[in-house]
Amino acid sequence: MDPASSDTGGASTQPGSKFDDDDYPAYTMGRAAEMTGTTPAFLRALDEAKLFTAQRSAGGHRRYSRYQLRLAVRARELVDQGTSLEAACRIIILEDQLEEALRINAQLRAAAE
């Protein structure tokens, strides 16, 4: 899944499924910042850098999924190591694309057997 295009369009509407859905936007900006050890400004910067697009609540507030929180933590690690925010976002997108390609490759190999 491309981080920049992550959405909840395919999520099941069953109430219990939201607990297992990594793409469900369950966390407010304040809670997301607390959980990731970042600041709201850092999360907004990731949104502006197009690493991901935060969903919006009915009131217009940003909401984050567990998947997006994992991306934010990875971005924070790279930035803490001296990588620029823009480069960190590009690295994460490339890592995500590689993971997806490897997953598809494994599925194709399994289907061919």
Automatic annotation (TrEMBL):
InterPro entries registered for this protein in UniProt: DNA-bd_dom_put_sf, MerR-type_HTH_dom
Stored Gene3D superfamilies: 1.10.1660.10
Biased composition (Polar residues): 1-16
Top-level division of the source organism's lineage: Bacteria
GO terms, molecular function: DNA binding
Disordered: annotated segments: 1-25
Signal peptide coordinates: none
Pfam family name, one: MerR_1
HTH merR-type domain mapped to chain residues: 26-94
GO BP term, pick one: regulation of DNA-templated transcription
Annotated protein name in UniProt: HTH merR-type domain-containing protein
Organism of provenance: Actinomadura macrotermitis
